[in-house]
Predict the 3D structure of the following.
Amino acid sequence: MGLKIKILKQKKQFESTPYYVKEDFPLEILNKRKELQIAVNTEREKERLAILQYGKIIFLKNQNTDSERSRLGKKKRNQSSSPESIEDNRDTNKVRKAAKNLNKNNHIDKYLTKATNSKRPALEDGTASLNIAE
Protein backbone atom coordinates (compact mmCIF):
# COMPACT_ATOMS: atom_id res chain seq x y z
CA MET A 1 0.00 0.00 0.00
CA GLY A 2 2.89 2.39 0.66
CA LEU A 3 4.16 2.12 -2.92
CA LYS A 4 0.74 3.06 -4.31
CA ILE A 5 0.61 6.22 -2.19
CA LYS A 6 4.13 7.23 -3.26
CA ILE A 7 3.22 6.81 -6.93
CA LEU A 8 0.01 8.81 -6.54
CA LYS A 9 1.89 11.64 -4.82
CA GLN A 10 4.40 11.78 -7.68
CA LYS A 11 1.93 11.51 -10.57
CA LYS A 12 2.85 14.99 -11.86
CA GLN A 13 6.27 13.65 -12.81
CA PHE A 14 4.59 11.35 -15.33
CA GLU A 15 3.11 14.26 -17.34
CA SER A 16 6.07 14.43 -19.73
CA THR A 17 6.02 10.66 -20.27
CA PRO A 18 3.54 8.53 -22.25
CA TYR A 19 2.30 7.06 -18.94
CA TYR A 20 -0.50 8.37 -16.78
CA VAL A 21 -1.60 7.58 -13.26
CA LYS A 22 -5.20 7.64 -12.24
CA GLU A 23 -6.50 6.82 -8.80
CA ASP A 24 -8.64 3.71 -8.86
CA PHE A 25 -11.83 3.40 -6.85
CA PRO A 26 -14.00 0.37 -6.19
CA LEU A 27 -16.91 -0.14 -8.58
CA GLU A 28 -19.50 0.95 -5.96
CA ILE A 29 -17.69 4.23 -5.37
CA LEU A 30 -17.33 4.89 -9.11
CA ASN A 31 -21.08 4.53 -9.60
CA LYS A 32 -21.74 6.73 -6.57
CA ARG A 33 -19.33 9.39 -7.89
CA LYS A 34 -21.14 9.48 -11.25
CA GLU A 35 -24.40 10.25 -9.46
CA LEU A 36 -22.80 12.80 -7.15
CA GLN A 37 -21.02 14.58 -10.01
CA ILE A 38 -24.39 15.75 -11.35
CA ALA A 39 -25.22 17.22 -7.93
CA VAL A 40 -21.81 18.90 -7.75
CA ASN A 41 -22.34 20.53 -11.15
CA THR A 42 -25.74 21.93 -10.11
CA GLU A 43 -24.23 23.34 -6.90
CA ARG A 44 -21.45 24.99 -8.88
CA GLU A 45 -24.06 26.63 -11.11
CA LYS A 46 -25.56 28.08 -7.91
CA GLU A 47 -22.07 29.52 -7.24
CA ARG A 48 -21.36 27.32 -4.24
CA LEU A 49 -17.96 25.72 -3.94
CA ALA A 50 -18.41 21.94 -4.00
CA ILE A 51 -15.91 19.15 -4.61
CA LEU A 52 -15.98 15.37 -4.68
CA GLN A 53 -13.77 13.45 -2.30
CA TYR A 54 -13.93 9.71 -2.59
CA GLY A 55 -17.69 9.10 -2.33
CA LYS A 56 -18.82 12.37 -0.72
CA ILE A 57 -19.70 15.91 -1.75
CA ILE A 58 -17.82 18.47 0.29
CA PHE A 59 -19.03 22.08 0.35
CA LEU A 60 -16.29 24.60 0.95
CA LYS A 61 -17.03 27.78 2.84
CA ASN A 62 -17.15 30.73 0.49
CA GLN A 63 -15.82 33.39 2.85
CA ASN A 64 -14.46 35.74 0.22
CA THR A 65 -16.87 37.18 -2.28
CA ASP A 66 -15.71 38.17 -5.75
CA SER A 67 -15.31 41.82 -4.78
CA GLU A 68 -13.22 40.91 -1.75
CA ARG A 69 -11.04 38.57 -3.82
CA SER A 70 -10.36 41.28 -6.37
CA ARG A 71 -9.64 43.78 -3.61
CA LEU A 72 -7.27 41.40 -1.84
CA GLY A 73 -5.48 40.65 -5.10
CA LYS A 74 -4.59 44.30 -5.63
CA LYS A 75 -1.36 45.55 -4.18
CA LYS A 76 -2.40 49.16 -4.25
CA ARG A 77 -3.87 50.68 -1.14
CA ASN A 78 -7.24 52.39 -1.18
CA GLN A 79 -7.20 56.09 -1.86
CA SER A 80 -7.81 58.04 1.31
CA SER A 81 -9.94 61.14 1.24
CA SER A 82 -8.84 64.20 3.13
CA PRO A 83 -11.25 65.87 5.52
CA GLU A 84 -13.05 68.91 4.16
CA SER A 85 -12.53 70.96 7.32
CA ILE A 86 -8.81 71.30 6.55
CA GLU A 87 -9.56 72.69 3.10
CA ASP A 88 -11.88 75.34 4.57
CA ASN A 89 -9.17 76.62 6.93
CA ARG A 90 -6.73 77.40 4.14
CA ASP A 91 -6.40 80.96 2.97
CA THR A 92 -6.61 80.79 -0.79
CA ASN A 93 -6.18 84.56 -1.19
CA LYS A 94 -2.56 84.55 -0.04
CA VAL A 95 -0.10 84.89 -2.88
CA ARG A 96 3.19 83.16 -2.40
CA LYS A 97 6.27 84.91 -3.66
CA ALA A 98 9.05 82.93 -5.22
CA ALA A 99 12.41 83.06 -3.49
CA LYS A 100 14.95 85.38 -5.06
CA ASN A 101 17.59 83.72 -7.17
CA LEU A 102 20.87 84.50 -5.50
CA ASN A 103 23.93 84.89 -7.67
CA LYS A 104 26.26 82.04 -7.11
CA ASN A 105 29.72 83.31 -6.22
CA ASN A 106 31.40 79.95 -6.41
CA HIS A 107 31.66 79.71 -10.17
CA ILE A 108 34.31 77.44 -11.72
CA ASP A 109 35.90 80.34 -13.65
CA LYS A 110 36.95 81.79 -10.31
CA TYR A 111 39.23 78.81 -9.69
CA LEU A 112 40.69 78.56 -13.19
CA THR A 113 43.16 81.06 -14.58
CA LYS A 114 44.68 81.36 -18.01
CA ALA A 115 48.27 80.17 -18.36
CA THR A 116 49.96 83.30 -19.66
CA ASN A 117 52.95 83.25 -17.30
CA SER A 118 53.08 79.52 -17.01
CA LYS A 119 56.26 77.68 -16.13
CA ARG A 120 54.93 74.67 -18.01
CA PRO A 121 55.26 74.61 -21.77
CA ALA A 122 52.14 74.88 -23.87
CA LEU A 123 50.50 71.66 -24.92
CA GLU A 124 51.66 70.16 -28.19
CA ASP A 125 48.33 70.49 -29.92
CA GLY A 126 48.38 74.27 -29.50
CA THR A 127 45.80 74.68 -26.77
CA ALA A 128 46.49 76.86 -23.79
CA SER A 129 46.90 75.09 -20.47
CA LEU A 130 45.09 76.23 -17.37
CA ASN A 131 46.66 76.65 -13.95
CA ILE A 132 44.61 75.76 -10.97
CA ALA A 133 44.92 78.41 -8.27
CA GLU A 134 45.63 76.90 -4.90
In short: The longest strand covers residues 49-53. The first helix runs from residue 2 to 9. Helices lie at 2-9, 27-45, 66-73, 84-89. The mean pLDDT is 75.
